Amino acid sequence: MLDRFPTTGLTLVARLGSSERDVRGAAFERIASLYWKPIYKYLRLAHHKSNEEAQDLTQSFLTFALEKEFLGDYDASRGRFRTFLRTCIDRFAINEFKAATREKRGGGAKHLDFDAVEHELPMSTNETPEVVFERESIRALFENAIDELRARWNGKDALTIFERYDLADGDRPSYQDLADELRIPITTVTNRLAAIRRDFRAIALELLRDTTATDAELRDEARRLFGSKAL
Q1: Which range marks the domain in which residue 52 is found?
Q2: Of 14-23, 102-111, 198-207, which has the strongest mean pLDDT?
Q3: How many domains does the chain have?
């Protein structure tokens, strides 16, 4: 079983339907921070929107969702939250609501670094819209998990080992190379890498739990991300 498998407490999804406005607002802000990149990429790739159109629609959708609070209407018995969110985006993009709800980019919204995200897009894709949104949502979850991991382990050898080994682009150094570089025993390299991997997995599971509605959905998502050893 994965360490610290989260199964208790209200998730972000549940808090979207809270009777307390501040709770709903805080939950929405966190959902928006986790999903704005997948939304933008989905509009670019699946709806074939231009860079500017996708930026406007992403900002407009988030503004509209915040004002109308319709994400709180999600019913877990009818499917996964991610599927519900994608359906909402599809409807919004098709209807576009431009005359009534569209704001100019940046109006009333936090700054979103669309330029950086644009560089992450593939040149083309033959994937279905469902696959695009699923892949980008998981990618965003892992990016957020890595950001939190870096904040927790900042300045520690374990983070250097993790970044050099697990996050390496191209050839990875050997454990011995890392031991020599950091002037520590090779057993320390393996122990620290194991520890930070456990924490990364725990962080990712917490984020996953926050964006799922039931324990059953969480466990299904965990299996998909971490394999059969997730349980």
Answers
A1: 12-230
A2: 198-207
A3: 1
Q: Is 65 exposed, middle or buried (0-12, 13-18, 19+ CB in 10 A)?
A: buried
Q: In this structure, is residue 78 part of a structural domain? A: yes
- Contact assessment for residue 86 and residue 133, using Cβ atoms and an 8 Å cutoff: yes
Which pLDDT value is given to residue 145?
95
Which residue type does 61 have? F
- Specify if 58 maps to a domain: yes
Please report the pLDDT score of residue 1 as a whole number.
38
Q: Please give the structure tokens belonging to residue 77.
A: 């018995």
In a domain, 2, yes or no: no
Residue 217 has pLDDT above 80, yes or no: yes
Reading phi first (left if > 0) and then psi (alpha if -120 to 50, else beta), residue 184 is in beta
**Does 6 fall in a domain?**
no
CB within 8 Å of 46: residues ≥ 6 apart: 129, 132, 133
